[in-house]
Design goal:
- The protein contains three helices and two strands; from the N terminus they run H-E-H-E-H.
- With about 120 residues, the chain is mostly helical.
- The longest helix has about 35 residues, at about 85-115.
- The protein is elongated.
- The protein starts with 5 loop residues before the first helix and ends in a 5-residue tail after the last helix.
């Protein structure tokens, strides 16, 4: 019998994925003044779907490579980082990490309650 089902594993993988995206977005902000630097992001749709597959292994987020953001506007110096856009993405990403962490915490609390026989 498996205690940690696919939902808990999927939530863990999704959190890892959002953390990986957070690192990429933070790199964009750090390189906002670097000539020739192109803003990057993760291919998120497929990666998130993969996070909830039954075969998803822990650490799958490490396999996802950042790609250059094709929608960003390149400035004269060749840099395509827009600080307002990156900060908004970081903020949104943070909210998603917090929400998923709260959901995962409630799942673990439910398991703890079940293990303890329903008493608190």
């Amino acid at each position: 019998m498996r205690i940690f089902g696919p939902v808990i594993q999927g939530l863990g993988s999704a959190i890892e994925l959002y953390q990986a995206r957070h690192r990429v977005l933070a790199e964009n902000v750090a390189n906002a003044e670097t000539p020739g630097y192109r803003a990057r992001d993760l291919e998120f749709g497929t990666a998130l779907a993969r996070a909830f597959e039954r075969t998803s292994a822990p650490g799958a987020a490490a396999e996802i490579e950042p790609v250059v953001d094709a929608h960003s506007v390149v400035k004269i110096d060749g840099n395509s980082v827009d600080l307002d856009t990156e900060m908004a993405r970081l903020s949104e990403n943070t909210m998603k990490i917090v929400a998923l962490t709260r959901i995962l915490t409630r799942k673990y609390e439910g398991l703890k309650t079940a293990i303890q026989g329903g008493s608190r």
